[in-house]
Amino acid sequence: MYPLHYLALGDSLTVGVGVPTFDQGFVEHYVCLSKQTLKKCIQYKKYARSGATTGDVLNMLNSPIVTEYVKYADVITITAGGNDLLNAAKIFMQTGNEKIISNVLEQSQNNYSSIMKRIHHMDKQKDFIIRLTNLYNPFPNIPMGEEGIKTFNSLIDNFSQYKNVKVADIYSIFKGNEKALLTRGGIHPNSRGYYQMALAFHKLGYFPLAR
């Protein structure tokens, strides 16, 4: 039986920042859940960096190693966008220029669009699925942040129109549960939060890998 190949691209959420070194992040949880459903061995690879923006993830696709893995991947997950908004928020707080938020949202959408096109235009020989995630809000008490995240999430939902692409709604899972699912005083999920992320991906199903 041939193994399935899973490629996880992204930022600190894919790295698994926020949990102790040997604890599982969402990628490892997702692998376990996927094995149970698909009844196959799954080999996975992470290409991720803390602080990575949508532009950084797009640049990862310039690496020959990454593009080779994309070609053979049956499952691809992407986490990106949170750092774009965090960086924009920092500039906004310094300058008060609201245009920076709309500019970053537009650039994030363009980067995601380029990522999707690059992956779909690669010479992939088999069925594959791509799973994206929207953003949760680690600062629910800041109205400007909430507004930016809701706008980003509506933009990311549009990519579910691509073939075999689905978006996990972790915004709704974390909303009102920040204390239970995020590290204390932090912006990253804790172990429970990462499991909930993986579960959200898992519940999107695996069609056409599993019918």
UniProtKB/TrEMBL annotation:
Leader sequence segment: none
InterPro entries: Ester_Hydrolysis_Enzymes (IPR051532), SGNH_hydro (IPR013830), SGNH_hydro_sf (IPR036514)
Domain of life: Bacteria
Domain SGNH hydrolase-type esterase, chain residue ranges per copy: 8-194
Molecular-function GO terms, alphabetical: phosphatidylcholine lysophospholipase activity
Coiled-coil annotated spans: none
Official protein name in the record: SGNH hydrolase-type esterase domain-containing protein
PANTHER family, sorted: SPORE GERMINATION LIPASE LIPC (PTHR30383:SF27), THIOESTERASE 1/PROTEASE 1/LYSOPHOSPHOLIPASE L1 (PTHR30383)
